[in-house]
Amino acid sequence: MGQVVDQTVTSENWNELTDDQLDVLERKIAGKYLRIVPWGAVVWGFGNTLVWLSLWPLVLLDIMPLWLGFIIATLNCSAAYLPSHEAQHSIIAGKGKPLRWLNELLGHVSLIPFAAPFRFMRATHMEHHKHTNDPDLDVDYGVTARNGWHFLYKSILRRQPGSKGKEAYSAALARTGQNYIMLDALIINIVYISVLFGMAWTGHAIEAALLWWLPKNISLVYIEHYLSWMPHHPGKETSRYGDTRAFKSKLGNIVSMGMQYHIIHHLYPRIPLSLTPAAYRELKPILQRKGCDLGEL
Amino acid sequence: MQHLIKFIFSSTAFAIGFLWPLVAQTLVATNTMPAEPQVWVVAALIVAPFAASAQLRGSWIWVR
User: Fold this and answer.
1) Which residue in A1, A212, A252, B24 is a FRET match for A258, CA 20 to 30 A apart?
2) What's the complex ipTM?
3) Touching check for A187 and chain B: CB below 8 Å?
């Protein structure tokens, strides 16, 4: 076995390996990309929030035009989730590790532009990983759609006040005995609403709309499209190698937020986002052998 | 307390707290209307149907 797993997998020999040998080889390759602190994501998370916070005085003091602030704020909100996602998976540092405080701080701070509670996001995201594509248990299953336009239509409907779309999240917390985390969501949302109302009634409604409300809602659709819908489409498979797919984005890897390689994240959630392309390239022959949907990637 | 929280997150509160001043200030900023008290009436008339739909039907855009 040792000899086998030390071999470089090539198109000439990987077909000869047994399933057990493939599993060993897969874990060995994945292991090379684990336990690496993604410092880029740390800088990205804190920097992104700092830039977004700086937009407020810059725009309110007329140093920066509002249209430019809106564009940057939309980019900030769209970029806010992924550093927190690394922290949700304890990629910066797991429990009991010296840098655990940094992991948790990054998780909270990077989500500020997104007005989302870190512990809530982490708890519900873990349920997504456990039950990917399960219509009853996957909290993200509501994004399932026939095509991109259908996704957008459903996304708009899910944001309506009477939508049942968000009930999956509170149900997941109740199911896992983590109802206390709802308090985080309540506090964050009260702060968010208070800022919007306060700004609006002090004559800054347009600034509040273009620096927070609209960017947050645009980025929510964008993030759900690339993180939840695209990698799991058509949302029917629930197996380890079938619940997530690779895909070639017409807009490239950065615009699609690295989600072309999301299949690697679902197989090995602690591989940093920045390393998933390299891990994918190395694991690709094994993924092909496992029957994964790799699209054109 | 529960009623207060429900109200804060209601469509009506969002319409009054945010959308109404947003529409009024947008009308003024785009020079559609002068910055006079009437703009608040017009803004209320624009926002009210959406707010009513959101509160009563559960959708800002009627479709749900």
Assistant:
1) A212
2) 0.94
3) no
